[in-house]
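A.,

Following up on our hallway conversation. Structure tokens first:
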């Protein structure tokens, strides 16, 4: 297979190299999914194609930016069109029309508001590249969006909901009858994912403000995060099931167990003991970890398979990302990387069989699964971008912290592997990680860099910190 275009070149010297086939496929084809401003697009910046041809989507842009930030030449920050399109009321649109560059008309305002994920995307971009000028520009726009939400979207109980499409509510089967979300059921409820995304948004904005020296704004945002977290923990947690649930209009739990609750872990809402209980369920084969980690809906919910053979829940690239990042947030690195390996192995098999990558897979079989609109998400741009993030950020264990001048490496692949052309903090790194040594011996790392930085290597319970200058280095970890 040809080398990836614009992205780091990865190689595994052994049988595990087939795990990289989806990565190479995604890197080669992702550029085809970028819409440049011009005859086809009235947007102010390059954007990522969505499943619908006429519009681009903020959910796709936010999550895809995690994978696309690893690009070098031809880097695309596909959140730019949304940062440039702040609504006059003060919120970021959920979608933008290619033909007009504007927010599509809708019968109510809530449908027009994006899920609050762009702050997370910008913060992760900053952690890899360290572009302070971009962060300064993005922060004020994202804070205006946050203030609008604070004034208009909080319910009387302090929790939040949204509109089904911007939050991908259909992927988890909640508030659905006859295969469709029922607006009257969803509208009166409080959602755990909407509240979790809101808390993550506030926490990340607080971290941005602190880096930019805005101490007062950082304190206000931190207070908002703690306020939402306190209400989620008081109202949405089930002691009996060790899970966070949505609330109906009367404040009662709606006990449908889905991956949407993982937003409570990634955001930092869940206290450590509760997060640990949830992650135990995540790795339970009778719950979320079926043949394909992870199903968006627990196998314990209703029929394991429906009458037409369709699965109860699907394994989606975007919801898998939330599960992986939740595991990393609790330092469950091996569990996250093992799940990513299984995920990529099944993607490789589906790619080998069909020649395509898919947004959603059957959680029990190596075949694509239909999305709610009947499509399978064949070669979906978001699936490509998230494959890149899951390979580099999870399987290879690369966790950047450019604002601290530190790159974290958590080796998982046992065979010798190389990473060439990795962009980090205005520089480029090449590294070769030696094979795992039986009996727990140290692994060698050969590294060449053209910028000074700190390399933090985690192996099991041990951590090594290396202060590196431009040049060649041989390390032991």
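Then the amino acids I'd put at each of the 477 positions:
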């Amino acid at each position: 297979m040809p080398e990836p275009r614009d992205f780091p070149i990865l190689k595994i010297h052994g049988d595990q190299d087939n795990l990289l086939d989806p990565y190479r496929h995604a890197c080669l084809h992702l550029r085809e999914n970028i819409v440049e401003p011009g005859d086809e697009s009235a947007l102010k910046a390059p954007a990522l194609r969505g499943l619908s041809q006429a519009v681009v989507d903020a959910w796709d842009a936010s999550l895809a930016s995690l994978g696309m930030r690893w690009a070098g030449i031809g880097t695309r920050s596909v959140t730019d069109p949304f940062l440039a399109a702040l609504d006059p009321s003060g919120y970021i649109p959920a979608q933008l029309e290619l033909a007009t560059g504007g927010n599509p008309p809708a019968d109510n305002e809530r449908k027009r508001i994006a899920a609050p994920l762009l702050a997370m995307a910008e913060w992760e971009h900053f952690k890899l590249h360290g572009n302070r000028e971009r962060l300064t520009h993005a922060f004020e726009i994202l804070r205006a969006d946050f203030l609008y939400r604070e004034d208009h979207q909080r319910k009387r109980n302090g929790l939040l909901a949204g509109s089904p499409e911007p939050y991908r509510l259909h992927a988890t089967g909640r508030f659905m009858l006859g295969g469709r979300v029922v607006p009257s059921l969803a509208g009166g409820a409080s959602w755990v994912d909407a509240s979790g995304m809101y808390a993550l948004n506030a926490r990340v904005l607080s971290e941005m403000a602190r880096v930019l020296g805005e101490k007062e704004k950082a304190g206000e945002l931190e207070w908002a995060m703690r306020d939402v977290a306190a209400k989620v923990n008081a109202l949405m947690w089930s002691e009996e099931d060790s899970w966070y649930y949505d609330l109906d209009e009367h404040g009662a739990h709606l006990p449908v167990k889905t991956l949407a609750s993982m937003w409570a872990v990634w955001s930092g809402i869940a206290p450590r003991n509760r997060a640990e209980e949830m992650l135990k369920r995540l790795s339970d084969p009778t719950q979320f970890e079926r043949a394909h980690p992870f199903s968006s809906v627990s196998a314990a919910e209703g029929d394991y398979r429906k009458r037409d053979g369709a699965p109860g829940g699907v394994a989606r690239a975007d919801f898998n990302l939330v599960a992986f990042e939740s595991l990393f947030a609790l330092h469950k690195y091996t569990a996250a990387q093992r799940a990513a390996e299984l995920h990529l192995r099944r993607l490789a098999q589906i790619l080998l069989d069909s020649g395509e990558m898919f947004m959603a897979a059957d959680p029990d079989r190596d075949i694509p699964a239909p999305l709610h609109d009947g499509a399978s998400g064949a070669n979906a741009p978001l699936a490509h971008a998230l494959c890149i993030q899951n390979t580099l950020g999870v399987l290879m264990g690369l966790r950047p912290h450019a604002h601290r001048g530190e790159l974290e490496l958590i080796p998982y692949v046992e065979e010798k592997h190389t990473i060439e052309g990795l962009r980090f903090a205005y520089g480029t790194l090449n590294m070769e990680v030696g094979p795992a040594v039986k009996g727990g011996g140290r692994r060698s790392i050969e590294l060449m860099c053209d910028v000074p930085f700190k390399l933090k290597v985690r192996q099991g319970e041990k951590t090594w910190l290396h202060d590196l200058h431009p040049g060649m280095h041989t390390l032991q970890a």
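The mean pLDDT is 92. Curious whether your intuition agrees with the design.

B.
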